[in-house]
Fold these 4 entries.
Entry 1:
Amino acid sequence: MKSKVKITGLIVWLFLSVTAFAQPSVDALRCELLTNPLGIDKMNPRLSWQIQADARNVVQTAYHILVASSPEKLAQNVGDLWDSGKTESDNSIAVFFDGKALKSDTEVFWKVKVYTNKGESDWSASASWRVGLLYYKDWNRRWIGFDGYFDSDDKEAGYLSARYFRKEISITKEVQEATAYIMGLGLYELYIDGHKVGDQVLAPGLTDYTKNVKYNVFDITELLNGEKHTLGVILGNGRYYAIRQEKPYKVKNFGFPKMQMQIRITYTDGSRQTIHTDDTWKGTTNGPIISNNEYDGEIYDARKELKDWAKVGYDDATWKRAEYVQEPGGNYEAQINNNMKVMQDLKPVSITPKYGKYIIDYGQNFSGWVKMRVQGEQGTKVTLRFAESLNEDGTLFRDNLRAAKATDVYVLKGGGVEEWEPRFTYHGFRYVEIEGYPGEATVNKFIGRLVYDEMETVGAFTSSNALLNQIHTNAWWGIASNYKSIPVDCPQRNERQAWLGDRPGSAYGENFLFDNANFYSKWLEDIRLSQKEDGAIPDVAPAFWRYYSDNMTWPGTYLIVADMLYQQTGDVRVLEQHYPAMKKWMQYMQALYMDDEGIITKDSYGDWCAPPATIEEGRGKSADVKRPNPLISTAYYYHLLQVMARFSEYTGNSQDRVGFENRAAKMKKDFNKRFYNQASYYGKNTLTENLLAMYFGLVEEDEKEKLGHRIVEIIEKENNDHLSTGLVGTQWIMRTLTDIGRADLAYKLATNTTYPSWGYMLENGATTIWELWNGNTAHPRMNSQNHVMMLGDLLVWYYEHLAGIKSKDNAFRTIVMKPELINGLEHVDASHKSVYGIITSSWKRKKDTFEWDITIPVNANAQVYIPAKEIKSIREQGKPIVENKEIKVIGQENGRVLIELGSGTYRLLSTF
């Protein structure tokens, strides 16, 4: 049986994928690259493919990969760079390139044929990637910029005007291929002959520029089709020129904006030319972008526009010669994670006149900016102020922005309709106040633009409970809003930092919604590079703020997110790359903070942002209260010892495993000796303390049932069916309750609408997730209305326990499908696009019947737990499963029948 193959793309380095459809005839093939294939700077990227087939139980048995230096050779089935030959293997998600050494600035072409137990495919369509600049020497020129202030800058206010650079070039031959490599810091926009190159915004990705600098790559062949051309670059500040500089002991400042770029051209006659940045470029700061600041916004004076500045013939006589400047210091690296872009446009749901101004409501809290159309007299100033909510009188509530001005200003040039949006800032908002707008404000003149890292939404979830569905929607908006090349905590106030403590459970849940593997792989590298020589890891990475407080819960996210990536994507290279740094940090924490009784004494934050007992008790009070707890730090260290024991095996460091396991066994005894109370609880008997002891396996086996009762008692009796966990406890609460047989209580927490709960946020107008459970009454100093940290493990619970989509082996090779049946929940319809392909689980219960539609991707299998009285009551496609040779019945347990399914689509019906 023949199969059809298509190239798609997925994660980490070069995780391209191929899809094969088993069917009698083969249709035309197509190439669908979902990740940017330009600028791969790894010598052995890994290749991946997805296989789809009409038949069931399809398993790959072998593959044949060809990698060639030209499409012509590939078309002739010549793999001059690598011909794997027919390789017996079922691996389809992580085959490392093992061919000839790759050279800088070359394009590589590949395709694959797969062999399965149901037949082989034809060759896939071809895909390609461009090898980036592999060596420092490849750049071979200098950085340019202006290292100093100009009259257009406001040093005291921290405002720096944008830097404009240009250079005219001549092309005397026919261009076969042209590639631009650019590092523009802090942010850049590249133009050729007045046209912006690419649709990315706020590029490149944020890093600690003394450690590493990301470069972007563009195919500009079609733009160099004449003799004369002009290269133009605008540089914004980003995080390079620090947003705030009044606390140099806290905030890193890297200097003034700068750039290095080269354009490599191959002509049709085979000759090559490279155009570099040098001091023949001209630059100015006297352009329309008066200031650009991530916290404060952008000021744009259209009267100062440099008309046709990036086109041939522009008079740049008044521009200064570009200066050679010091390089940033970090290694140059291709940016594998996608840049940000405008991902969605929103129209206002209302525009209301208010005190001579307009208040625009987009109906949704999100991050990005406004694209405005306006017409008026020259010099008219339009001011846009952003906020997440309104005061009672309908004016903007901005107290929770702290010192962020969150304001854009546009000065009209006059003479016709003008359209403008900022380049080098973004805001977190739902509402915008417009002041000074000439004429009538209408919805088509103020388009909200949602901006986040370009990535696919790979998860979907709906159920019979509308509240669950809306929480899922709110979570999507909150997660997307806080993807800003790093996982920022919030997009609106003067913070926007990648706090490690916000993400351990959240990142896991996010991966069910978004194809974020490249994003989080990049962040793990930010964390590794922020590590001090002695092993210390900061609370914020990249370490734009110098916060090295030494605690377990925040830096521990480093290990937990790496574990998530391995489990969800099968990317062992992530573990291999970070294992030494993780091991060093574990040793560092033990050496400095383990006391003589085996307890880790250092914890900086405790169960951060635990809810006040009542909504009134927290009214007007700041949540910025640290409650360090050695039980939490010790429990986390124990858990991470177990994680490291697994990592040691995965990464070929098995000699370390015994040491980790022995330390964990001793710590368990020390932990129980110090923190266990004979009344069957831990520490001070808080919900979080007991949850950690249960979920991490610290409680002795014969005490588990009692501890489970205590956890339930706290929630049901003391909390009146509500949670009382802060950031730490919420990471584990839903899974713990389900594991102890109380998924019904987890469901109660998920569907509460009274304080404290996710539903309470919705009842009080939230369209994302709040930073605080009492976000409507807490002091505004620390009260973001668009955070993800309080999601905890909620989304993990949605997909793994309500839908029944859980990876048993790494990367969903084996899927555990065991949805919880909870009174009041009548159906769930969910899907997740894993590295093997789409997994779907759509179930419906009616009285004593259970209907379940399931899709398993090729090369994967599922352990399916069907609610059923007996095996003979189960039917698939209308026929008893006992008569279906494609379905393997394993046995029965606890009112369910366990069957094993191979790939394919199934419709199951049972009575229970």
Entry 2:
Amino acid sequence: MTPESTGGSVEAEVWELLDTDDTVADKTVYLVAAALQGDEELADQLGGDAPSPTRPDTQSPAESAPLRAFLRSITVSGFRGIGPRATLELNPYHGITVISGRNGCGKSSFAEALEYALTGESYRFANRAKHWRDSWRNLHSVEPAAIEVEFAMEPDDDRSGSSATVGADWAVGAELSACKRWSQIRGQKRESVDALGWNQALVTHRPLMSYDELGGLLEDGPSNLYDALNRLLGLDQIADADSRLKEAEKRLGVPRKAANDNRTQLMRTLEASEDPRAAEVKKLIARKPYDLAAVTATTLGTATDQAAAIARLRAIADLDVADPAKATEVAAELRSAIDAHADGADSLAKAMTARATLLREALDLHREIGGGPCPVCEVGSLDGTWKSSAEQRLKEADAKTADHQKLTQRLARARAAADGFFTAVATVPAVDGVELESLSAFNDAVAQARSAPGSVSGLLSHVESSAAALADAAAALRAEAATLAADLEDAWAPTARAIAAWVDLEAAARTGDDKLAEVQAALKWLRANAEMLRERRLAPVVDQAREIWGRMRHESNVDLGGISLEGSANRRKAVVEGSVDGVPAGALSVMSQGELHALALALFIPRATTPDSPFRFLVLDDPIQAMDPAKIDGFLDVLVELSKTRQVIVFSHDDRLPAAIRARSIPAQLLDVTREEGSVVVVKQNDSPAHRYIADATAVILDDDLDDMIKRKAAPGLFRMAVEAAAHQRFFTDRARAGAVYHESDAAWEEAKTTQQRVALAVTGSATGDVSGWKSYRAHRFPTMAICASGAHSGAALDRKTLHDLRETVRDIAENR
């Protein structure tokens, strides 16, 4: 049952195919390889600067393998249906574990907690309304909300004997998505869950499937199944490479599409023109390769003088001159600089400069000869007091001198800006054959603007007035040129412009045509070989799914055929073929709900149990809910086979699966989950149903606070269920040992309607068998059967004696005493 590996590295396999393809170009090899590696690698390869991609080194030591683990326990508090801390202890080795419990008992909360701790998400959470997701905290025990999942390493793992724990903790009042997820290998520090190396495996070999997901795998549409199988086959890397190449093709194809679309429009324009040049150009662009030089020569080579004049006039119509607003800014700065400089008292600054020079020379003298009388006035003394005073005055003079220099520099810059404001403005030459009345005025305005006056005050008014005059002259010239161009343009000009526009687009497209062709060749090769890879990798998975379906399809007239993955992107779909009574039909369209669930399991199990998966456990939440007895029997066959190599954990809302396990004496861990007041969840060994009913009857009869009338009405029903449960166990066990299939035994059981008929099935093998002798053989049997038959109607007197009789009768039936 354990599926063969779906293959090693997809990238290595693609390189192998490239190597064996003698027809593939080197550039195709490089682009395919780069696309497999990532966006940056493909961009670099298309840019031409990247080295040739290197093939994966299959001989290099592999990274540390992810931990291979069994489930040991799941501990939950404050999450979903579990209030105070509760732990689900599991046998961490190959085998079957069934956790039973009524709906609402909290059993699925363990499965959801496991899923959330491992993935940070839940299929059920993601596919329900927001208000449902917001109620994830337990109503009775809000804090703390926490999950701990303990794993045991596989015995043949080098790390066997150790364990790892994955946890999820929520702060008080935190939202669901705000949990802190962590992992810890025994004896090491806590790390992120990523440290276990399970991230990719949780996508490719997901070991968890809930009832909702079981239905959703097929009901969410063929694209959902396509994605699941694509991940299993490792072909999501191929899909990513395809997407990258497709995006590159789209990007590189934009100029080519624009040129082709424009050519189509140009052909219509040429057909509508009566000019002989249009017919000639049409011939030139009728077939590839297009001679763009000849097209341009035909379009412009025989153009009239008016065509050249029109081009000049349109250039004049786009004339740009100095902005009056900018001129105002330049003049304002010059004015401000002039005022600031004037306020600086230029003459005073010069005097201070001279005085500073004298003081500096006196200080130099003082340093040379020391103190003494002033050599200038011969009255004062150049002593220490004088020196300190002179240095201070010199410092003040230097500061004022520096300020004066800044003002002078600012004024120089402002004047230079005003002087050169019109430097870039040039006169416009005349247009041959065209009289522009406003041309002379414009050129005069240019000359006037460029002849700046020598005085600063004259320059101020010159800049502003000349800019305004020049703007007015330019506006008049532009308007006149635009009007004349429109008047002079002949009927050929629009066609010529259309041709010129297409020539430009075609020339631009040609620069990328080679790369576009290379990308298209790489995409074509990848898609052709992806189909082959997909078929090769899908074949063993389909074989395994058909084998599993063959075990589970009891009494189904639907046979499973081939499974194929078709299309890509938004048109991708998985096609499941089948036949009904030998007539070909789409399998999904003719299957019942139970059959769809069985098929989903058949597809899910190979994905989850490949040897490449690090998970040695498989968790199924309520997989038999929609199954009939025949499907359950086949499902149990599948579980038995899986349990040889996997820890198979099944959550079930009823006792049908445990009953089938008991009937066939299959070794399994059977657990029972109950939910008590305050969301207290209790996990215990799953006793046989008969013993559970005896315990319930005992609790009712020995409850001193319970009214006797209620006891006499309620307890007989529990007696009847206990006896029938014992008969069920005995009958199915005997039938299984005799080789009968489960669903046939179930049909016989359902036909027996009364307790006595079901006891007869167990004791005699027939619902109509005579059990009178059996009932009278031991004293406790007859009164117990009487209570089962009529006690619920007449009200039975019940006490410890009748409980003893019930226990003995159940033992007689179950143990064939």
Entry 3:
Amino acid sequence: MLLRLLLPMAAFVAGVVLLHQQTSLPAASSLPLLFLPGLLAMSLRRTRMLGSLLLALALGICHASWQARTRLEQRLPAALEGQTMELRGRIEGLPQNARNGLRLVFAPDPGQQDGLPARILLRWYKPSITPVPGQRWQFTVSLKRPHGMQNPASFDAESWLLQENLGATGTIRSGTPLQDSRLSAPVDQLRSLLQQRMETALGHSEYAGVIIALAIGEQSAIPAEQWQRFAATGITHLVSISGLHITLLAALAALATRSIWRRIPRLCSRFGAPRAAIIAGVCTAIIYSLLAGMSIPTQRTLIMLLLAALALWQQRPWPGSLIWLAALALVVTLDPFAVLSPGFWLSFLTVGALLWAGLASLRTGARWQGWIQTQWAATLATAPLLLLWFGQLPLYSPLANAIAIPLVSLLVTPLTLLGLLDPSDELLQLAAKLFGWLDLVLQQLAAAPHATLRLAAPSAWALLLAAGGVTLLLAPRGLSGRWLGGIALLPALTGSPPQPLADGEFAVTVFDIGQGLSVQVQTRSHSLLFDTGPPGSERLLASQFPTAPDVLVLSHNDNDHIGAAAALLAQFPHSTLWHSLPSHHPLLAGRTVHSCTAGQSWEWNGIAFRWLWPPAGFSGSDNASSCTLLIDNGHQRILIPADMGLPEEALLLADALPDIDVLVAGHHGSKNSTGSDWLAALQPEHVIYSAGYRNRFGHPAAATRQRVQAQGSREWRTDLQGAILIRGGRLLELHAWRELQPRYWYTAGNADSPDAP
């Protein structure tokens, strides 16, 4: 009987997941046909169970398809991109601190502009005042369609925008608050007041962001280096209002209420203490979840608690598997885009693994043994997914969590919540100090040798095998053949590494870094990073290097080329640094550096690297002094001229230059670079423009593109195609990341985009 309930719910969720793997949405007219196999199976008595599964699967596909089509239709029309417009509307949620300004969600009033999305993500650089949640504003904005940079093993911003139902992004040029006496968004206003209260109480504490996250779920104030440390030790799930915290507080509220209620006969005579405890626990969970902003882990925990409370209220014990899967199906029904979030799966699968392993059986031995076994179950269940999404495993995660979970859940979080009521601020400050002591341990673990294991993302078949392997390994001890689960895990945990490079072969990635440049070059045993892109690119680039690059190039003193250099130099202190920066530049202080001077060269694994520019003693502007690198394996040649312009190209043409197979267009495709004579001399087969989507400079310029097209070179664009992956050897291969990993929600490069090549 239980299977008849569980399997259709699982099939429904599978249908939603399947829809989100498609490269395009199915035609609406074809969706009814999906129900035919299920209806046919239901008509036969022996296949009715199969029929119910097929119908549930089709229902999941149709539900997700309808929701996806609705959201895509609400996106900003391409014709409105780049237009400056005046919009009135209301602030939704908490404005978040971002680099050089604020990031906020804005809900425009209806009827102002045809095709305007219901929710827009706006960035406001250096605002004069901070908007209040629920407040009405008039903004002068410039909007874009949802777009995000696309690189291997990196965050998919377009997927996140779809999940959050944000139909456009934009920049605020100016803003004016509007008078509005109506009470709006009281919960978000309370969260904003609490945030201000904690910022004042904690002052300049480096853990203020963590305490704010534990209290109200707002994580934007946590510094990037702390996030990297939390990820390296596997405790990111604790640095927020997690399901564990909500469950703990609900249980404490229920126990306290039951204890007090039983001591008051008048209350007990009117209402039983057990039911009063249930109500108190549920109310506590709801209030804390609202403070958290109802994130996916919060929704999962709240729904599971509500279902468990309903079972207790009815005095009917429900199986844990039914509560878990019902919560899963309900979350997916309410928000079919939740399955696109790694946090959704990490949250549900951790709980599911603990339920399957059986907490009761885990505690049959000593408490410390049960704790270790619990950590083992959680780590084992999430390991394949961590490899899939992040390409790495924090090896010290079980140890870090064994220390962090009791400290954060039993001390730091309760002190934080009690501190909101403490006028002296001492409890909040104590919570920050306690977390600081924990972070000292995390720093040691993150700095330990082999703290993080980096492996290739597992394939779909390896993930399926891993799911079976985890199920076997966590099964009851009496089950024979549990050891086979370890074998089933091996393909996922060892990964399918990319085809290794031989001598004479290279792999080059021109990253989709926005308006900037960053290029990774790999040979069989060496790696090089040419430029770091604008500030904020360090997390992406650090994730692409399992070990520090042998060489880091800072081509010239422009922020869109070296903006992330300071952060990367701190992570890669032993990389050899080549540059054309001024000698007094702070990035060079205390380091052994080399100036990239024309004629200098070296060789790695049969690949020759040679500087073509600037010449010795050259004096010019930052762009004119750009390091220009030639990569040559004897079969193919790649040229990276950074921001070199037409005058420098003309000077360099005085030397005999070889034909180039791949040219990274100078200065992001500016009209003042990549001239006709330059193209005629180099004869590039491929030209790559590294530029930001709809950037304000208009790169790549129409004149440059006309010259490249007249030459007969094939054009590649990071803004529309994502990262460009190049592999050289006997043959030359180029691929665009958006083409390798297509998704139905991608906007850049669509036929209706005016910038499509």
Entry 4:
Amino acid sequence: MIYIPTDFNMDLTPAGLRWRYEDMSGIPRIHRPDGSIFEPTLRYFAFCWLNRIFKAKSSMGPPSSSLREFLCHSTNLGLDWVGAASDDVLRTFRNLFSERVKDGELSAAQVELKLDHVFHFYKYARKAIPYLGGLPTQQFVGRPSSLAPITSRTVAGKSRWSGWSKIKRSAPDRPTPDFNDVERILEHLRSAAMDPLDGTWEQALRVYAAERNWLIACCKAKAGLRRGETADLSLQKIAESLARLKIVTMPSGRWRSNVQPNPLNDAVNDPSLQAEIIAGIEKHAARGYTTLQVEVATKGRPSRSIEFPLNVIIDILQIGIWQVRKTLFEKWTAAGSTKLDYDAVFLSSTRNGTRLTKKAVGDTVKKAFNDLVVGGSGHRLRAYYFTEMAWLLWNEEQAMAGYRNDVVVNNNVMNRLADLAGHKSPGTTEKYYLDKARLRHRMKKNRSSVDARKDMMNALISVSWNLDVDRCQRLQKLIYAVDDCKDPRFFAVMDAAIEKYVELKDRPQPSRAPHLRLAVDNSS
């Protein structure tokens, strides 16, 4: 079985935990996939806190994430933590991130920092865990001349792993565009499409290119696609996603042609089928769904599923496929072109039917940033997407947790962000967007709304156990009515009924059971 880092859950030690007479609450804990606590890292962080090697407990977060990734990697290699202590395993751990560094998702400096975290753990492991199986713990780190499995060297007076590389950190990335900047970029890319056609093919191409470029930016800003994923977006995969919802029917059986039958292509010249497909998507949206999961190809790694907003899917079909691509294919077919890519969503205007390249996708959006003097490039639209998604996911997880902020909320948000980003595990990228969402959550302008939601949840929790089924169902209907109704008379009637029949009072909060005070036996 191949594990991913999120299979190793992380949390913090509970309040009241003491070790060697010191408060050890809030220390990172890593759990194995079977739920058991991985004791070596717990002892390591406790030892480092006792000796103030870490100046704050909050600074243990990044090292704990690195150690979780290393534990996952060594487990997949079939090694326990002692057997994983070697120069060769550290090198394989570095190579684990090579594709992400190549794609710009992770910097080489970040990878070296992860290696330094692992080296630091093994450096202090013997002091943190003096005995293993009744015998003195071996020395894991030493000079190349020693028998230690991990070799070290001194760099600027500091002990480092012998294979560690000093990499100068690049300048900070350009700021993420805000909502207004993104809207300006989208409007600018589409502006040429607003011009009426004058009958010339050159002007028609500019209009169609503007519609295509606008859809490209929508895919990046509203679905978080990389430029390669945008260029490789497959109409067949969109059809398969719609087929899973029974909105379209995929043909079965074998076919002799290399072109796989696709009902979305069949609808190009069938307005009634187009209307049927759009009606199916809108019906799906009416049930409360906002996205469609579409599989996208990611070079160097397995494909991943993207949450595509339904309105973007409709725009891709109605504008990108059934209008723009239809007209381009008719023109190129009449000119004798036979190499038409019926699976491509975004086509090159100059190559007569072939898919737009990854470079062209990046250049198109970058030009819009430059034209409007907005800092960044198409990659920053992806950053904007994760900024917005972190905020939405944070609110959603907070609501499900009863507006109680705890480590479970943080972990769930980071794991979901990692899934959206196509990362195997949460890392510094997810933590960055989570921190931004938490800061936004604490902003003064949101405080009254957050407090009101919290008070509502506290009231509901405090009385829910005493309500019978009928009252619970009546309350459920009332909540939906408050959300849906726009008639002020409804609220006037409701307020009058509350004033007459309900005695409002501050209900005391239910007393919580205190945490058990744990004491770890330090006699060993």
